[in-house]
Amino acid sequence: MKPRSRGVARRYAKALLELTLTAGDPAALGRDLASAAELLEAQDELRRMLAHPAVPAERKRAIAAAIFKGAPALFSRLMQLLVERERTQLLPDIARAYATLWNAHRQVAAARAVTAVPLSADQAAALAAALGRVSGKTVELENTVDPDLLGGALVEMEGRTFDGTVRGRLSSLRHRLIEGTQTQSTGART
C-alpha cells in the first residue's frame, strides 16, 4: 500500500476510535474491523468486485450491506462510505491502524511468539509478563507454531524481533565460528 493510502487509512482509524471512545465499544469495533479485513483479504473475488469501477456503486452498497448485515451502525456506515468513495481496499490498513491506535490508547503492546510447539497457558502468561516488564506495557500475546524452529521462541513486538530460537542461536554460533576462523587465518599471515 502506498504511504498516502496508509495515511488515509490512519485518518479513518483515528476518527473511528474517537467516535467509539465517546459513544461505543472500541474493542468490539476492532474485532469487527479485523474480521471484515480478514474476509476481504481471503475472498479475492469479493475484493475485486468491490473495487471494480464497472460495478455500479448501488450494487456494491447492496452487497456490502448483505455481507455485513447485523453489524453495528458505525461499522455499517464505514463500509458504505468506503464503497461510495471506492476505498474498500483500505479496509485491512484501517483495521491495522485502528488496532495500533486502540492499543496505544490502552497502553497495550501486541506481540507474536512463534514457537516449535504451542505454548501452554502458563508459558504464554510468563512470556507476556516478561515482555511487559521490558516494554512497560500490558502485552497481548499471540502464539503461532513453526516446527522448523526446533525450540525456543521468535518474538515480534512493536516492530522489534527477539530471536531466542535454537535455529537462531545455531546460526549465530555458525557466524561467530566463521568470523573467528577468518580472524585467525588473517592473524596467522601477519
Which term fits the overall shape?
Answer: elongated
- N-to-C order of helices and strands: HHHHHHEHEEEH
**Radius of gyration from the alpha-carbon trace, in angstroms:** 23 Å
Task: State which percent range the strand residues make up.
Answer: 5-15%
Strand order of the largest sheet: 2-1-3-4
Structural classification: alpha+beta
Let me know the largest β-sheet.
Answer: 4 strands, mixed
Query: Treating each run of at least 4 consecutive H or I residues as one helix, how many helices?
Result: 8
Find the count of extended strands (DSSP E, 2+ residues).
4
**Helix percent band:** 55-70%
Task: Write the CATH architecture name of the largest domain.
Answer: Orthogonal Bundle
The CATH superfamily of the largest domain is N-terminal domain of the delta subunit of the F1F0-ATP synthase
Q: What count of structural domains?
A: 2
Give the class-level CATH name of the largest domain.
Mainly Alpha
